[in-house]
Amino acid sequence: MYLRQVYDPHLAQYAYVIGCQKTGEAIVIDPLRDVAQYHAIAEAEGLRLSAVAETHIHADFVSGAREFAADGKMAVFLSAEGGPDWQSEWARDLPNTHLLRDGDEFHIGNIKLQAVHTPGHTPEHLCYLVTDEGGGADEPIALVSGDFLFVGDVGRPDLLEQAAGIAGTQEAGASQLYQSLKKLRDMPEHLQILPAHGAGSACGKSLGAVPVSTLGYEKKFNHALKLALNGTEESFVKFILEGQPEPPLYFANMKRVNKLGPAILGEAPAPPRVALTEVSERLTEPGFVVLDARSDRKAFISGHLQGSLYAPAKGDFSGLAGSYLMPEETVVLVVDSEDQVSGLTTQLRRIGFDHIAGWLSANELAKAGWGTLRDVPTVTFSELHELIQGEPTMRILDVRRAGEFAAGHLRGAVNIAHTRLRARSTELAKEAPLVVHCQSGNRAAAAVAWLQREGRRVYFVDDSFKNVPIALLA
After folding, report:
1. What class has domain 276-372?
2. Which residues of the chain have pLDDT under 50?
3. In the 3-class helix/strand/coil scheme, how is 269-337 assigned residue by residue?
4. Could you state, in order of their start, the residue ranges of all structural domains in the chain?
5. Prediction pTM value
């Protein structure tokens, strides 16, 4: 048996290539949509990918299952659980689709995979018990656990409500998750836990940075799992719904895309270099966006093209871009160097942004001159009191997470997490000037870029929250 965990650090996402070395067959579970990487991994081991499977309909990336299914040669294994509203519509009529229910089994060569229905994160969620029968095993070696069980955490049951806007689902999901986790009680302690995400993902609140674990270890040290196995349903539901990070805005679109079926990428071409004059002529065109990915935040704040959004390449590029871009918009990137273009384009396509028209270099932008560029006025926390005294209608916008805000915030500040700002901007009076801050500046820089694009009058706090004068704290 061959097992390879494939990690994407930008999404903190794990896919798995599992192969039978005796027959040469292999399966990939929970792949991203740029599928060539998985074929290359299999081929390097003398294996051939013959099947693809999903644990659930994903919210944080475009699934590669449809991309794999496009050639008609690969078997597709998807969940039949959760009811008709939770099925992958794109795959229903494909001849090679196999819809699985709890307990169903299938083989990849001499490797047995058994579906285990584990609702809670989503109603249709499946895990896969993996048994190496070709190696003589009669017990599973691993559980491909998807977004059900992580290292140090369990899947969050509130995303359908918080990200996709399906009201009334989070409490029911938490109760389902509580019951599903009890299925782990009688599974072997030696089971390797192969999760779909690690630290940095918004699919949980305390995911570990260790890539794999064992069920026995998680039973001892995973607080959420221990609470489900030994505590009351009421205490588990309360705990699991508290303190979850606010998800990026694009999560809602991913659910829809992965259910209906994403576009087939195929051999997607790299975006071309475009001239500054061409971009400048399109700045006021509806649906056209410049996404500035320069790593120097101060350079962006002091000079950028009108209406530019900001997502630094060396920061949380996917999360920031996905919280302010719309999937139908046409994007031109501003990059520090040409060698960033391919990677940033891949990151955008992995979260459903396919309309990338080209790129500009930061050097070309720097030569444009101040007549072409816009800036954002900046202040420090020590200057804030004087600024507000001179602008009595000004409002302070704190774009940190709710948990950060609760731990300490400025007097009179409004809290909207940067990942939800576009969805909640109507809560801010249009006429009031805004002074925007976060913990260190990157999230606030992305927020002020979008607010400025929307015609708001904004100030950027270019400072660390640790420098806030005590007199300004609530």
Report:
1. alpha beta
2. none
3. CCCCECCHHHHHHCCCCCCEEEEECCCCHHHHHHCEECCCEECCCCCCHHHHHHHHCCCCCEEEEEECC
4. 2-260, 276-372, 378-472
5. 0.95
